[in-house]
Automatic annotation (TrEMBL):
Pfam families in the record: AAA_16
Segments forming domain AAA+ ATPase: 47-201
Renumbered residue ranges of the record's region Disordered: 679-718
Identification of the protein by name: AAA+ ATPase domain-containing protein
Length: 718
């Protein structure tokens, strides 16, 4: 588009043009900072001569240029406007367009001219020519306003001459006030403004198109509920995707809270570096300390369009991304497991607390770590402020007894939020003095009692420095702490306690928890939501979340995700004997009931092979222990090396059959202790005469043994 305006021209003071300008002015809101700076330049107060305005498509650059042109014309300036979409990208074409417009206007005096260039990103190959030839040749009083999706090149900022003559403005989304005012000026009824303002997220183009679409039907909760509008907006805002791999890269950036190049390699493969550079150059993509992210309305628009266009591809990509973060969480060598946990939690964008999740996604990924001793007092102050002195005194006892369960998130101002994870049984008696913990213990005893060595995990206290339990920060630190504990610490039951079930109840039920305990304490009702992890282990929980993150479904876990009741001791030992007999036949092991027990590592992609590794480790551990060496030789000869029977193995080893049978029984007694760990925990309570006689330290948990402990020979044979 080529357009010029001059004060005093008939077209500018009467007729349809004047009516259009008045309507446009009525529909313009905000941008006070940019208007004031421009007015200073036009009035001769400021030395700035070039204004560089940048931001993503739909953020209001063109509308702002219109408003600036109107103000310049009212001050007697001649305004000449170029739209890069109408120009060939060459210096000669740009210069010819400027000369043509001047001739058409009757060659007005150039000294007061204001040149507006829209869509400058299309002219970026000419950036040096603009900077070194066209703009320096303009008269001293001339002004130029450039609008681009991209920020100015570094040469604009580093040139000592331009540094004093250039002003750069990055346009942000509107706040709630400007959004509501724009909708009002566009004629939206008061009853609909708040809904549409929430959907538009401050994007002027989105707000304008929502207003044009008329009153929202059926109270849409997100842009995805308006598919036709989503398609139009995507074509206008995200219109520069070169191919399928770059589309996948953009979709990855939309789903992850902060996308790294490492994650991009998982989703687009060998072209990850190319796609990363392309994304970093997009005006609707920002770069943060922990990765790339999209403006939230662009994120929602593109996700909705991608789901509408390719629902199967959307689900597949979602699975790849969450599997990536689950693998990070399971890697003991990674120092940033809390970030992986946060990414997993922030995938819950269709659940009951989706608004809070959106706030947290915009805020990024702060570190969530175990609290240092010096931070304890501040956390106790927050508990006292939020729940009273009696609750704070109880929390102090828990924190002193189990400090490893205290997590926090902090800013430069100090601790911003916390979560206290505790375990029962514990040796100090706090569990009996805490009415909520005592009620949880009674409920577990009535429903599904603990077996030897089993524990109950309780997310006992949580809050934040703002609105305490209503603060989104509390949701983040609590969610991350729970995921880290569920992933790394074995427990038979897990509970989350809240005094605000009205706000959190549906969310916990969305997670598959049930309200099992209600206790009046601290002046209000405390509700504990729980789940039996022996029936519904963490790997099943994350499998359920994979579908609920996409559906938002609420309710108890489906029956097909529940594990069978824990095996009785006799059945467990028989299953171990059968599994050893079928050790060399993986197809037969596929039907073993041990696949639903702790002998299989959680999240294993090959559960049969994981079971074989565990059995092999146990047998070889027995061989390495001087007290069980003979047992190990018998078992290894019989099962791992494939003797036809125990009798044959005894003959090959030169041992009486009765001796071999006694050695099997001794090893089986040790195996019986494996069953006391919760199903799917990946941990194995060890046993040896030396360990059994040790008295545990006050405030510590019983030690849990892993497969590596078995392999290293640290498991006694009995």
């Amino acid at each position: 588009m080529l357009m010029d305006t001059h004060a005093g021209r008939d077209a500018g003071t009467s007729g349809i043009f004047a009516a259009l300008e008045k309507a446009r002015e009525r529909g313009f809101v905000g941008r006070a900072r940019e208007l004031a700076a421009f007015a200073d330049t036009v009035d001769g107060v400021s030395e700035a001569r070039v204004f560089f305005i940048h931001g993503p498509g739909g953020i209001g650059k063109t509308t702002l240029l219109d408003a600036l042109a109107r103000r310049a014309a009212r001050r007697g300036r001649y305004c000449l406007r170029l739209d890069a979409r109408d120009l060939v990208c060459s210096g000669a074409a740009v210069a010819a367009a400027i000369d043509e417009r001047r001739r058409t206007a009757g060659n007005p005096p150039p000294g007061g001219e204001v040149l507006f260039i829209d869509g400058y990103e299309l002219l970026e190959p000419l950036d040096r020519w603009f900077r070194e030839e066209l703009l320096p040749a303009r008269p001293a009083g001339a002004v130029a306003v450039i609008a681009s999706r991209n920020a100015p090149s570094m040469r604009w900022r580093t040139d000592p001459g331009w540094r004093g003559l250039l002003k750069v403005f990055e346009l942000d989304a509107f706040g709630p006030g400007n959004s509501m005012e724009l909708l009002a000026r566009l004629g939206v009824e008061p009853a609909s403004r708040r809904i549409l303002a929430g959907l538009g997220r401050g994007y002027p183009l989105v707000l304008a198109m929502l207003a044009d679409a008329g009153p929202p039907a059926g109270r849409p909760e997100r842009l995805a509920d308006m598919p036709d509008l989503v398609s139009q907006l995507c074509r206008m805002i995200v219109d520069d995707i070169p191919d399928a791999e770059h589309r996948t890269a953009l979709a990855t950036c939309a789903q992850a809270t902060r996308m790294t190049e490492e994650l991009l390699r998982r989703t687009v493969g060998a072209r990850a570096a190319e796609a990363w550079d392309w994304l970093r150059a997009r005006p609707y993509v920002s770069s943060g300390r922990t990765g790339l992210f999209l403006h939230d309305v662009v994120c929602e628009l593109f996700e909705a369009e991608f789901l509408q266009r390719s629902p199967d591809d959307y689900v597949d990509l979602h699975r790849v991304i969450r599997d990536y973060f689950l693998e990070q969480l399971a890697d003991p060598g990674r120092p940033d497991a809390d970030r992986a946990a946060a990414e997993l939690m922030l995938l819950h964008r269709r659940g009951p607390l989706s608004d809070e999740i959106a706030v947290l996604r915009r805020a990024g990924l702060p570190r969530i770590e175990r609290a240092a001793y010096r931070e304890h007092e501040r956390i106790l102050e927050l508990i006292e402020q939020g729940e009273g002195i009696d609750v704070a005194q109880l929390a102090r006892q828990w924190i002193e007894a189990q400090p490893e369960g205290l997590y926090r998130v902090r800013s430069d101002e100090g601790v911003e939020g916390f979560s206290v994870q505790v375990y029962l049984p514990e040796p100090t008696g706090i569990g009996l003095r805490d009415p909520v913990a005592a009620a949880i213990a009674r409920t577990v005893a009535e429903r599904a009692p603990l077996r030897d060595g089993e524990r109950i995990n309780i997310n006992r206290f949580a809050g934040a420095s703002g609105a305490y339990q209503r603060d989104p920060t509390q949701l983040l630190v609590n969610g991350v702490a729970c995921i880290l504990e569920w992933f790394s610490q074995p427990a038979a039951w897990s509970f989350i306690v809240t005094f605000d079930p009205e706000h959190y109840g549906l969310y916990f039920e969305y997670l598959g928890f049930s309200p099992l305990v209600r206790v009046r304490y601290g002046g209000r009702e405390q509700v504990a939501y729980g789940w039996d992890r022996r029936r519904f282990p963490p790997q099943s929980f994350f499998e359920l979340m994979e579908s609920r993150e996409l559906s938002g479904q609420i309710g108890p876990p489906p029956a097909d995700l529940l594990k069978p009741e824990p095996l009785a001791r006799g059945a467990f030992l028989e299953a171990v004997r059968s599994a050893l007999a079928n050790y060399r036949s993986p197809d037969r092991l596929a039907g073993s009931p041990l696949l639903d027990t702790q002998l299989v590592q959680p999240f294993s992609r090959q559960p049969v092979e994981s079971l074989r590794r565990t059995l092999r480790a146990g047998v070889r551990a027995a061989s390495a222990d001087r007290r069980g060496a003979e047992s190990g030789r018998v078992l290894e000869r019989t099962y791992l090396k494939g003797a036809p029977s125990q009798e044959a193995a005894a003959e090959l080893l030169g041992l009486p059959f009765g001796t071999c049978n006694r050695r099997w029984s001794a090893w089986a007694r040790c195996c019986g202790r494996w069953r006391s760990a919760p199903a799917g925990s990946g941990s194995f309570p060890g046993w040896s005469p030396r360990l059994r006689r040790k008295k545990p330290r006050t405030g510590t948990m019983d030690r849990n043994w892993t497969e590596s402990d078995l392999a290293a020979g640290r498991l006694g044979t009995g």
